[in-house]
## 1
Amino acid sequence: MPGAIYAEGLVKTFGDVRALDGVDIDVPEGTVLGLLGPNGAGKTTTVRVLTTLMRPDKGRAEVAGLDVLKYPNEVRRSIGLSGQFAAVDDYLTGRENLQMVGQLYQLSARDAKRRADELLERFNLAEAADRTAKTYSGGMRRRLDLAAALIISPPVMFMDEPTTGLDPMNRQALWEVIEELVASGATLLLTTQYLEEADRLADTIAVVDHGKVIARGTSDELKSQSGGDVVEVVVHDRARLAEAEEVLRRLGAGETTRVEHTRKLGVPAPGGARTLAEVIRELDALGIEMDDIGLRRPTLDDVFLSLTGHAAGADGGEDPPPGAAPDGPPDERARTRDQVRKKVSR
Ligand SMILES: Nc1ncnc2c1ncn2[C@@H]1O[C@H](COP(=O)(O)OP(=O)(O)O)[C@@H](O)[C@H]1O
Ligand SMILES: [Mg+2]
C-alpha cells in the first residue's frame, strides 16, 4: 500500500530545464522523509506538485490516499505547508496572518481565532501578535510560517527548507518544534540543504540532484554505502610512512590513502574501534611514533560528495530574502487579505 505521501515518475520541465526527471517517493504514515539536495535540485518543484500547486508533465502522486490531480481540494484540506513560498503576508499582523489561514481552511471565525492564539503562544509570538509581519525578524517570520502550517493540525505536512537562513539558536528551536509535531504522529516531508538537519530529523533520506533521486535510505545506510569508518593516522617521522602504510593495509579493509606532505594515512575500517586499537598496538610495537590517530565516521557530507561529485549546497544560488514576493497569484492573496481585514475588524 502506498504511504501517506506517494509519487511515481514525476516529470516537470521548464523550457529546457528538466526540474523533475522521474521522481519516485514513498513516505510511510507517521514517518519523516528528508529530501536532501543542493539548490536547483528540484526539491521545491517536488513539494509544489505534491501540494497541488503545480501539475506535473508526467507521473502521478497521492497524498493522504488521495490523487493530487483528481482531488486537489481534498488534498489541500489534509495537508499543511510551510516554507519558502508559504503564507506570510507582510501587511497583516501575526494574528491576522494566522486567522486568514484558518479561514482559508474554512474554520469558523471563532475557531480560527482560538487556534491562532494557541499557536502564537506556542511559537513565542504572543507579544508580537499585533504587529505587522513586515516588522518581524527572519526567525519570527519562520515561526509564523510554521504556525500557519499547523492551523488545522494536518495529518500530512510539507516543509520546504524550514530552517534555511536561520541562526543556530532559532534552528535548534525549530527542530524541537518539528520533533514534537512528528512525535504526535504526523507524516512529514522536509526538504533541506543541510545534511545535519536531515540526519537529525529524517527517518529516511532521499538524495536529489538534477531532478532525480540518486540515493535513498536511512542516514546510517547512506553512510555505510559510502564506505563506513576510516582509521586516520598522522605519522611523526616521514621516513616511516611506508612502513606504517603497510600496517594499515594489513589491518584495514581496502585501499589506503596517503598524503605525503601532511604525513597522513587512512584506511577503511569496518571493524571500527577494534581495528583502531589493533593499528595503535602494531605501530607502537614497531616503535612508529604517531602525532595523531583516530577513527573518522563518514558524514552525510562524505556521502553527498561521493554520490554527486560536489558538496551539498555548493553550487550557489541565493534564497529569496525574507519577504520576497511569494508565488501564487498576487491579486488572489490581496483579495483574501481584504476579506480577512473586514472580518477581523467587524
Ligand atoms: N517556475 C519556474 N520557471 C522556470 N524554471 C524553474 C521554475 N521553478 C523551478 N525552475 C527550475 O527548475 C529547477 C529546480 O528548481 P527547484 O525545484 O526550485 O529546486 P530546489 O528547490 O531544489 O532548489 C531549477 O533549475 C530551477 O531554476
Ligand atoms: Mg527550493
## 2
Amino acid sequence: MISSAEQLDLHAFAPTLRRSHIIRAVWLMLACLCAWVPLEGAVTLHGHRYIPLPEVASRFGMDHTWRIRGQEASIHSKWSNLRFTLHQSHFTYNGQKVYLGEPIALSGGVLHVTEVDYENTIKPLFFPQQYDPKPKLYHIVLDPGHGGKDSGAQNASLKLKEKYLAMDLAKRVKARLERYGYKVTLTRTDDRYIPLADRPEFANRVNADLFVSLHFNAITNAKVDGIETYVFTPAGHASTNAKTADKRTYPGNRDAPWSMLAGYHIQSQMINKTKADDRGVKKARFAVLKTLNCPGVLVEGGFVSHPREGRNIGSSAYRDKLADAIVAGILNYQKAINRARGIDS
Ligand SMILES: [Zn+2]
C-alpha cells in the first residue's frame, strides 16, 4: 500500500529529466549489475574477511587512485569521492566522516576494507536498491532523550538540561515533518521518565517506519564540540567507542542498510547547515536502537558543555536550524528510498 506521504513525495520531487540524470541513471544501472557479482580477492586479516578497495571501486563502476601509495586511496566518480587511510576506522564520503567497524588494512600492496563494513556501511550508501525489503516512510517516531528524574547532559552555568532541549527539538522537527505530510509520534510529550527499552518497544507497537532519538552531549573537557549520529553496530564488530565485539544479531541489525542511509543523510545535513565539527556517523549498541523493528538512528546534536556550542544549543534560532537540518536529512533519505524503488526523484 502506498502511504499518503509517499504520494506527496512523488509530487514534491517530480522528475526533471536532464542529460546528467540520464547519464547517471545509465552509470547506476551498469554499476549496479557489477555490484551484484560476488566480491573476489577476499583475504582474512586480524580475524576478519577483508576485500580490496580496487575491487570495491570496479564493482561500483568507479575509479581507484592512490593519494599516497600504500597509505591513502580514493574511490571516485563524477559525483562521489570516498577517501580511505591505512589503519583508520573511518572513511569520508564527499567530505563527510563515516565510521567503519574495523580499520582499513594493507595486503598485497592495496588497501582493504572488511566485508561487514562493505555490506553494512559502504554499499548501502550507493546501492540501497540491492537490499530488501525496501522500507516505506510515513510514520516517524521521534524520541526526545531522557526526561523526569533523568535530566541527561547539563550545563549549570548556561542553565541547560538535555531533557528539555531534546523535547524542544523534537517538537520543532515534528511540526516541520507534519507540514510534509508525515505522521509523527513522540515517545514522550512531557517531562517524564521512560526506561530506555520502552522507547523502541513503543516504536514497534505503533509500527513506525523510522525512529529518531534526539540527544545532546556533555563531557568534562569543555573544548570538545561537534555533532554525531549513531546507527546500531553490525554483528561481529566493536562499536565506535568500545573495544569488544559482539557476535550476536539483534532486531536492530535487520535494517542496517536503511539506518545507515538515514544516519548519513541526517548527519550530512546537520553539518552542512550548522557548520559544526563533524564527529561522523558512528556505531553503538544503544538500548534504544537494539530492539527496533524499523530503521533507526540516534542524533547527538552538539555539546552543551562547550561554551560556544552550548550557547548555540540554548538559542531557539539554532534549534530551528538543527530541526531544519534533521528534516532535510529525512527528506533526502526519502529520496534515496524512492530511487531504490526505481522512482526517479
Ligand atoms: Zn542523551
